[in-house]
Amino acid sequence: MNRLGLLALQILVGLAGFAIWHVLTVYPVLGAPKQIQFFFSTPVEVLKRTWAEMANPEIWGHLWITLQETVLAFVFGAAGGIAFGFLFARNALLAAVFDPYIKAANALPRVVLAPIFALWFGLGIWSKVALGFTLVFFIVFFNVYQGVREVSPVVLNNARMLGMSERGLLRHVYWPSALTWMFSSLHTAVGFALVGAVVGEYLGSSAGLGYKIHEAESVFDVTGVFAGMLILTVFVIVIDTVVTLIENRLLVWRPQAGGQG
Amino acid sequence: MVGQRAAEGRKGGRAGMRVVGGTALAHDAAAVRLQGIGIAFTLKGGKRYVAVEGIDLGVMPGEFVAVVGPTGSGKSTLLNAAAGLLKPVSGSVTVFSSALSGLNARAGYLFQADALMPWKTALDNVAVALEPQGVPRSEALARARDWLGRVGLSAFVERYPHMLSGGQRKRVALAQMLIRDPEILLMDEPFGPLDAQTRQIMGNLLLELWAANRKAVMFVTHDLEEAIALADRVVVLSAGPAARIVGDFPVPLARPRDISEIRLEPQFHALYKEIWSCLRVEVSRAYAGGPA
């Protein structure tokens, strides 16, 4: 399957989805269109609203807030995850002592923390950053921990025989190995940072995409909710593309799944 | 059965005492000497497995010693003891007359499995070997380039390990080991995973590099032909557990040698027959007694 053919098929699936949505909400197939539209809106309405929202400079302010929260949550979460991942992987006693607490903290559904964070950090961006942090931290932490623990013993012994000090090993062996594992979870981590931001906004805020969606929902404006979701989706795709670019840049040494270079 | 060491095929005599089989002198001329080495592991369930026992083996500076033995005879274990990666439960390891503690800093190790850092290019993999010695980066890179040239990889310096073939990766590993100029080379079936032709090419490359700057070599292999073609001396280990040395044969073939040609010589055949008669017993024992 060549690239163009694939792209055409992908677009076709999208169009088919919109077409089905359109037919079911505009024509009386399932019931009175007016009633159906209250629950599902129509694709044309949603696109029109999305377009209008995007043309309105106000939305960029909301996007900017959400972006800030996402990036901050990711940066802090990743930094914390890397630091503790390294610390625990290199210190077996520490890891053993804290093991049950980490498992317990990770098992807790983080959404329940949102009201607490709102109480502690206010309704501004920091309560959302905190929520995103708790999500990102554990993903990065577990991956870095695994990455450091599962360094190939042969590569490690070889580096030792080359006379590397503990610092050299950290820099040339443990760190790149941990990074690989971290990057393998990068998409998930960034996704969770965004989840933290949007859910936080949804539960209590005065700005951001989550706030926009919540605002529309509170007045039963289904078109507004769908338009917000569409904008969010485009936003996620853009972020994910940037992450992929960074990943490809930093992991050039990794064998490609498709073929060899 | 234990053959006497021979000095044929070497250019000039070497200073220092030649010792056969483990009677160490006050001043030991050996580059690395294993003395009464015993190595044991605790298996799952608390059982104790004795891999090797009572091993006496010395390698002189400039001497190429091959260690052969059936699978599971603890060949790699011996090498790891000489490298300091493994602490023997009994006996001692001496490196140039001083007892070894910790890693053997005067040795280079060529592993059987891929040991290159996959996140570094061939050039960086070789250059990083100079970092512990405090060589400035620009000089390290220049020297790494030179070494990659010597192993025939000038055109591949910027490649990552996964972009290289198995043989090319071994060449990089060889350059990585040799650039530090270690006095002792420890090799654990380094060409084992390669195909037959590549093995011969790599063997010749190794001999060529070694001839230019002779180091003490301890080369572990299960391939007797390879052992005879490369080494000055072939040491035969018995089948495990508790493997011992059961044969020590000098290889008086002239150098320089061509690995693919030397196999055709009658002297090679005679040696092969002699050593194989010793090794064969152990190989059949390994298959009869062990789970191999």
From TrEMBL, chain A:
<feature type="transmembrane region" description="Helical">
    <location>
        <begin position="219"/>
        <end position="246"/>
    </location>
</feature>
<dbReference type="InterPro" id="IPR000515">
    <property type="entry name" value="MetI-like"/>
</dbReference>
<keyword id="KW-0472">Membrane</keyword>
<dbReference type="Pfam" id="PF00528">
    <property type="entry name" value="BPD_transp_1"/>
</dbReference>
<keyword id="KW-0812">Transmembrane</keyword>
<keyword id="KW-0813">Transport</keyword>
<protein>
    <submittedName>
        <fullName>ABC transporter permease</fullName>
    </submittedName>
</protein>
<keyword id="KW-1003">Cell membrane</keyword>
<feature type="transmembrane region" description="Helical">
    <location>
        <begin position="129"/>
        <end position="148"/>
    </location>
</feature>
<feature type="domain" description="ABC transmembrane type-1">
    <location>
        <begin position="63"/>
        <end position="247"/>
    </location>
</feature>
<dbReference type="InterPro" id="IPR035906">
    <property type="entry name" value="MetI-like_sf"/>
</dbReference>
<dbReference type="GO" id="GO:0055085">
    <property type="term" value="P:transmembrane transport"/>
</dbReference>
<keyword id="KW-1133">Transmembrane helix</keyword>
<feature type="transmembrane region" description="Helical">
    <location>
        <begin position="101"/>
        <end position="123"/>
    </location>
</feature>
<dbReference type="GO" id="GO:0005886">
    <property type="term" value="C:plasma membrane"/>
</dbReference>
<comment type="similarity">
    <text>Belongs to the binding-protein-dependent transport system permease family.</text>
</comment>
<feature type="transmembrane region" description="Helical">
    <location>
        <begin position="169"/>
        <end position="199"/>
    </location>
</feature>
<feature type="transmembrane region" description="Helical">
    <location>
        <begin position="70"/>
        <end position="89"/>
    </location>
</feature>
Automatic annotation (TrEMBL), chain B:
<dbReference type="InterPro" id="IPR003439">
    <property type="entry name" value="ABC_transporter-like_ATP-bd"/>
</dbReference>
<keyword id="KW-0547">Nucleotide-binding</keyword>
<dbReference type="GO" id="GO:0005524">
    <property type="term" value="F:ATP binding"/>
</dbReference>
<dbReference type="InterPro" id="IPR027417">
    <property type="entry name" value="P-loop_NTPase"/>
</dbReference>
<keyword id="KW-0813">Transport</keyword>
<dbReference type="InterPro" id="IPR017871">
    <property type="entry name" value="ABC_transporter-like_CS"/>
</dbReference>
<protein>
    <submittedName>
        <fullName>ABC transporter ATP-binding protein</fullName>
    </submittedName>
</protein>
<dbReference type="GO" id="GO:0016887">
    <property type="term" value="F:ATP hydrolysis activity"/>
</dbReference>
<comment type="similarity">
    <text>Belongs to the ABC transporter superfamily.</text>
</comment>
<dbReference type="InterPro" id="IPR003593">
    <property type="entry name" value="AAA+_ATPase"/>
</dbReference>
<keyword id="KW-0067">ATP-binding</keyword>
<feature type="domain" description="ABC transporter">
    <location>
        <begin position="32"/>
        <end position="264"/>
    </location>
</feature>
<dbReference type="InterPro" id="IPR050166">
    <property type="entry name" value="ABC_transporter_ATP-bind"/>
</dbReference>
<dbReference type="Pfam" id="PF00005">
    <property type="entry name" value="ABC_tran"/>
</dbReference>
